[in-house]
Amino acid sequence: MPRPWILVLGINPGYIIEVLEEKYTRLPPEKRLEVIIHELLHIPYTASGALRPHGKLVNNKRVRQLVRQLRKKKPVYNEIIRLLEETC
Question: What gap in Å lies between CA 38 and CA 44, rounded to an integer?
């Protein structure tokens, strides 16, 4: 939504993560998690409505690093993977 409308209506920006169903559903849960993390990295810390480009903060190395950190939190990681298995 254009910035003037956001200000006039007094609403906060929102984000929608879109995936291509025919490709996403064929992925194993671990790869689905990587896709979601990658897309979330495009959202700036300010959640201003803008998107970050690929580069220093949005790249495959960063995605793999975050997945490794999640794996260390076994119960959380297992629950996320379980939910991703159920969604498709």
Answer: 12
